[in-house]
Amino acid sequence: MASVLITGIEPFDGEHINPSWEVVRQLNGVYIANTLVVARQLPCEFGHALDKLYQAIDELEPTLVICVGQAGGRAEVSIERVAININDARIPDNQGYQPIDVPIIEQGPAAYFSTLPIKALVQGLRDDGIPASVSQTAGTYVCNHIMYGLLHHLKKQGSPARGGFIHIPYLPEQAVNHPGAPSMSASTLVKAMEKIIAVSITTLKDLVVSAGATH
């Protein structure tokens, strides 16, 4: 049976919740476009997060892998375009590890591009009234680590599965502790993820429209 693996990340940096897991876990066991959605939580840890991700991929053999993470301070759903081969942690991970200028994969490519239809995803979300944009950076913390590791693994395995990474804003209950920070409701984010999964399943060729940035 065809399946979609969707992952969220455990809380980090003093937060008690992580919107990525709070949202994706609500989709576990749901069928979208006749495809079973399976949600898994990843640790906020360099290395270990990829071990858990690869284990889930090997177990499920999904046709689509969408990893989701928290991007506190961003106001939109961010569809990540690219992951770069570097760990440069501003803060330690949940095991206290803080790699600085360390490649994710020794001798790996400098970067991998998402294989999701990123521009069609943005258009689909906007059509549903959900703020969204293509993001040109997934950072250099665990989220970028996961995205790069995912795409490297699929490439190395010769897998036909497509994959990518989505960053989402704080939930309102987090934003109250970060004055001035934007947020998005869990219900809106669940709707966004449902749309992202549906469009990713049904769209094999991306739109050719501008989604670049000047800085």
From TrEMBL:
Catalysed conversion reaction: Release of an N-terminal pyroglutamyl group from a polypeptide, the second amino acid generally not being Pro
Superkingdom: Bacteria
Keywords attached to this Swiss-Prot or TrEMBL record, sorted alphabetically, are: Cytoplasm, Hydrolase, Protease, Thiol protease
> By its UniProt entry, which Gene3D superfamilies does this protein fall under?
Peptidase C15, pyroglutamyl peptidase I-like
Catalytic positions? E80, C143, H167
Q: Where in the cell is it found?
A: Cytoplasm
Q: Which HAMAP family match?
A: Pyrrolid_peptidase
Name recorded for this polypeptide: Pyrrolidone-carboxylate peptidase
Question: What is the gene name?
Answer: pcp
